[in-house]
Predict the structure.
Amino acid sequence: MSWLNIRGHDDQVDRFRMLLANSRLPHAMLFVGPPSVGKTSFARAFAQALLCETHLPQDLAPCGTCPGCKQVIAETHPDFIAVRRPEDKQALPVDSIRALCGKLSLKPISGKYRIVIVEDADNLTEESANAFLKTLEEPGPGSVLILIGSAPETQLETVVSRCQVVRFQPLTPDDIAAILIERGLIAQTDQAQRLAQQAEGSVARAMALADLEYQDTRTAVIQELVDHSPPSAPRIARLIEDLAKNASKESSVQRRRAILILEDLSRFFRDVLWSGAGLAAPSGDQAWAQAAYKMTEFCSPEDVFAIADRCMLAIAQIQSNANLPLALSAWAMDLCKILQESNLSYPRS
Ligand SMILES: [Zn+2]
């Protein structure tokens, strides 16, 4: 059984129960770990447990039905504040941090806790982080600040030193398979297990892999790279752009989708590297094995490293709100250029 349907982090639940029972809950915490392992869901459930009107905080058992629980879920609770980066901004604006610090100087309205979740702590600028430091060190009475980021290294030292770092591990394949089935995304256990094995600890990746349009696009991009000489950069960029646009009208969802496929293509090229060395592909994806083997004919190890670097650059650009079609076009052009200029002979038809 998992805590409140949040799988894979039962150790953290035990740890927080103990801290609460001993009245030793830190007032500022930095949750770190890979994306899509449940850090934000955990923080929100934790906030609900602290503000639940039915059960004691140290029980960590929010009832889900009292006004306190319902208001946290709806983000209308006067003692619950979620701060996130605005859709059109690259960073958390200093003004929202200043407004937050102002609110935290007052006592909690419910008389118990006031919980703040900063969802995009990786996007704190130096200016917003500096505006936050004093509050992080001494938030108002009853305040609990939870910053969510990817790793302590991505935060300013001054922020990390004022927070207790709480690490979230990648999910196990069993947890991911269970989530896929619980959410009704996959009906068959063996298929869920297979996808979970390839998900590398991320539910978002498993969910993308379960999506047929995603699978088709990924196959089409790899086909384009493997079968055509030379591959068409505009066609590759268009395939990914269409996939992103079909996912949602929301820019953040489109960006996540594009990033996932770029990460996936980096993994494909890692398979190419291993395949070129005569080793079994680390992704374990049978569908890729043949394509990866064929790719070794015209892609050297140096090319794989150059492609991986170029994928990481494109991911960073898309994360920082670069224009998506432009970022994808530039990436696809560079990818094709690396392959065409490879010191290995490229097959010409
Ligand atoms: Zn409740």
